[in-house]
Amino acid sequence: MAATPSRMITLGSKAVDFKLIDTISDKILSLEELKGSKGSLIVFICNHCPFVLHINERLVQLANRYQEKGIQFIAISSNDVVNYPQDSPELMKQRAKELNYPFPYLYDEDQSVAKAYMAECTPDFFLYNSKLSLVYRGQMDDSRPGNGKECTGIDLSNAFDALIENKAIDPDQKPSIGCNIKWK
Q1: CATH top-level class for 4-180?
Q2: Strands 71-77 and 39-44, how do they pair?
Q3: 83 phi/psi in degrees, rounded to 5
Q4: Are strands 39-44 and 28-30 parallel, antiparallel or unpaired?
Q5: Chain-wide mean pLDDT for the chain?
Q6: 3-class secondary structure, 22
């Protein structure tokens, strides 16, 4: 399991709109129609990465807590499914149902969305405000598989709380770490 850090793109960057298939509903959804009233968290994940498996339960808990406060969660998988069939749309749908994802789980078949966002790893988090300007791009917390630290989601929670309360988000952000996106 190679640990790849996220790329710390410039705060204030604008979100790139997209139209992707939601593997849960089988509908084509766009960022414009999904975005939250207070903000939007775009997270690149996949089915098989141990780093994603480590945070999945906490991600669902955070979504259940913050979506009702106006933060929309949007999960995207961009992995090459030819070489990583466990990340196929059919298995994405199955995983989303098993874990009760309360958010869409979109499939980026041509990997153009991951490239547009400069996503590097799974999980890779991008939090945008209501105007779709980037306010946070960093880790969920400092827990990693095998490091013995509890997965709390504190870094993301602090960013969500500040955004909801119209407070400044600390610009000193630590990159997420995960498996590299499986490029074609």
Answers
A1: alpha beta
A2: parallel
A3: -90, -15
A4: unpaired
A5: 96
A6: strand
Indicate the burial class of 109 (C-beta count within 10 angstroms; 0-12, 13-18, 19 or more).
Answer: middle
Closest-CA residue to 85 (of 123, 59, 48, 54): 48
For residue 74, how far is the Cα from the chain centroid? 6
Convert the pLDDT of each residue in 43-61 to its tens digit: 999 999 999 999 999 999 9
- Written as six digits, the tokens of 64 are 């259940």
Q: What is the pLDDT of residue 3?
A: 86
pLDDT at 13: 97
**37 token code pair:** 């009233």
pTM of the model as a whole: 0.96
Rounded CA-CA distance 183/94 in Å is: 23
Would you list the DSSP string of 115-131?
HHHT--EESEEEEEETT
Indicate if the pLDDT at residue 160 is higher than 70: yes
Measured CA distances, 82 to 79, 107, 109, 126 (Å): 9, 14, 11, 26
What DSSP character marks residue 7?
P
Residues whose CB falls within 8 Å of the CB of residue 33, separated by 6 or more in sequence, listed in order: none
| Separation CA 83–CA 79 (nearest Å) | 9
At residue 1, the pLDDT reads 54
